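Subject: two folds for Thursday's group meeting

Dear M.,

Sorry for the delay on this. The cluster queue was jammed most of the week, so I only got both jobs back this morning. I'm pasting them in the order they finished. Each block is the input sequence followed by the predicted C-alpha cells. Could you check whether the formatting survives your parser before we put anything on slides? The first protein is the one we discussed after the seminar.
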Amino acid sequence: MLRDKITETFVKVDDFCNEFEILYSKHQLPAPSNVKTRNRKAGMCDSEIITLLIAFHGGQFRNFKHFYVDYVSVHLREDFPGLVSYNRFIELSHRCAIAFMLFLHHCCKGECTGISFIDSTVLRVCHNKRIKRNKTFKGFAEVGKSSMGWFFGFKLHLIINDKGEILSFFLTKGNVDDRDAKTITNMTKDLFGKLFGDKGYISKALSDLLFGNGIQLITA
C-alpha cells in the first residue's frame, strides 16, 4: 500500500475512532473504587494500530511480522513516530478488536450487485492434541468439522460481491453449521439476486428460505 493511501486510510480510521470513543465512554461501566487502574501510555493510538492492520492486507507480504519488522519499522517510522516493537504491537492490537470490527462493518463494506459469493473458513485456537488443555477460549470456542477435518475454534463466514468487496461477515463457534438459518438470515438481509456457494451449502430448506427473501441460492 502506498504511503498516500496509508495516510488516507488513517484519516478515515481516526475520524471513526474519535466518534467510537465518545459513544464507548458513555456506556462504559465505572471501575470499582478499590481497584487500581494503570494509565500507561501505549505509544501508539488505536487509529495507528488499525491503519497498519489494514495496510498489511493491502500489500504483498506473506505474514504480518515480515510486514511490520522489514517494512513498517524501516520505511514508515516517520509516519508513525510512536512506533513500538513487534511484540508490543501484537499486545496492543488486542484492545482494538471491537473498534476494528465496527469500522469494517460500518465503513468498509461494498454494495450488492446481484451476484454474491458465500464461504466460510476455520479459525483454529490450538492444535487438536491441546484441545483439553486450552484455557484461553474455554466456554467460547467449540469443536467443529470442516472439509479439512476436525478443529477447535471458530468459523468466519464471509459474503463478497463479484468485485471482491466484502458484503457481510459473521463469527460463530466452530460447531455452527454453514447452513445455519439464523446466521445466513443475518448475513443476507441486505442482499438480492444470486448467491453462489460450494456443496457445503446444499439444503432445500435454506434454498426455500433465501428464495422467499428474493435470493436464489446456487451451489456447486
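Second protein, same layout:
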Amino acid sequence: MTAFGKEFREKYFPTGPQTVPINHGSYGLVPTPVIKKFHEHLDEDLAFPDKYIVFDYTPQLKANIARVAQLVDADPLDLVFCNNASTGVNTVLRSYPFQKGDKILMPSTVYDACGNTVKFLKNRYGIEILTLDLPYPLSDDEVVSKFKEVFEAEESNGNPVKLALFDTVVSMPGLRIPFERLIKLCKDHNVLSMVDGAHSIGLVKLSLKTLEPDFYTTNLHKWLYVPRGCALLYVNKKHHRSIHTFPVSHSYLADDEPLEETLEQSRLVDRFAFVGSSSFASFVSAIDAIEFRENVCGGEDAIADYCLRTAKEGGAKIAELWGTKVLENKEGSLTTSMVNVEAPIPSDLKEDFLRLCKTPKFVEKMRAYVDRIQVEEFHTYLPCCYHNGALWCRFSAQVYVDVDDFVYAANSFRKAFNRYLESDTFKVLLN
C-alpha cells in the first residue's frame, strides 16, 4: 500500500506537481479513480437521458443512499441527497411550520449561509433570533452549559426556544463542538435540533440511530471524497410529513395528505428522489468514494488516525515556527483533521492590525490580497479568520498531505501576509 502523504497524492489525486492542497475543509478533493467513475456515471446519463433518468437513476440513487446509511448508522428511509449542507439547512428551515414569535437559537460561530437563512425567516415570518456568543477556546462542558443557560432562561420567560441550530465542526475557525451532547440537551428541553454537520461524514464518527437528532445535514463532497455537490439530509421520522423539497417540485404532498402504509414509509425519499432536471453523477458516486476509502486507504479508522495525527503534529510545528499557539482547550477536544494556529503578526503592528479586524470588511479585503498571492505565486491556499481577539489560520490534514506541506503553506502564507502588511493598501489604514 502506498504511504499516505506526498506519494499518495501523486498517485491518487489530480493535483499538479506544484500544488500543495492544505485547504481540504473548504471544497474537498476527489481521488482520480473516483473522478473516473463520476465521468462514467455522467456519460451514462448524457448518452441516453430518457433511459437513465426514467429507469436507471432511481435504483442507483437508492443503492448509494443505502451504502451511506451504513456509514452513518441510519435508516435509509430517513435519508435523502441534496446539493450541499446549506441546501439541507434551507430545506428544513424553510419547510418547517414555524409560527411568528418562535425562537431559534444559534451560536455566534454559525456558518454565514445558515445564519442568513435564519435572518430570512425573521424578516419574512417574524421568527425571533437568539445568538449565543461562543468565544473559543471553550471546554465542551462550557459550550453545553451556555446552551443550557439559554434554554432554561427562555423556559422561565414562558416562551421557550423552538429550535437550536449548531454545527458538528465549526467552519472558521475549524473546531469540533460537543454536538452529541447538544442533541441530547435539546431533547431534554423539548427543543428541535438542526445540526449543520457540513464537516462530519468522513471526519467524525456518526450514529444517527443513537443520536436521533430532529434534522442533520452533512456534505459528502468535503471529507468523504465524493465530487461536488453532494450532501446528505437526515430527517427524523416524526418530521417526514413537514419537510419538503427545495425547491418545491412535482412530488409535493401536503403535510396532511394521507398515503397507504407502504408509500407512507417511503414518503420522504420518494419526494426527494427527483426534484428537477440536473446532473446526478455526484449522487451516484458515493459508493465509489466509500470503496476507494476502504480498498485503497485502508478504511475509516486508518484515514482518521493519520489525519488527526498529522493535524496535531503539523499544528504544533507551525505554532513553534510562528511563535504563536494552537487554538485548543485543555481537554484537546477541538482539533479534528482541521487545526487552527494563530497567525504571526509582527509585534509592532499587532495592536493596530487587530483593531482593524473589528471594522467591517477589513478581514475580507485583507484575505483577498493575501489569498491571491498564495494561489498564484505559491500554489497553495491557507484560509484565515478573526476570532476572539486573534487571527487564526486553518490547516486541513488529509491522506495526501504531510507535516512538510503544513510548513510550506505556513511559509507561503507568512510571505504573502507580510507583503500585505508592507503594502500601501494596509499602510493607508493606519493613518
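Two things I noticed about the second structure. The CA atoms of residues 106 and 165 lie 5 Å apart. The longest strand covers residues 161-167.

Cheers,
T.
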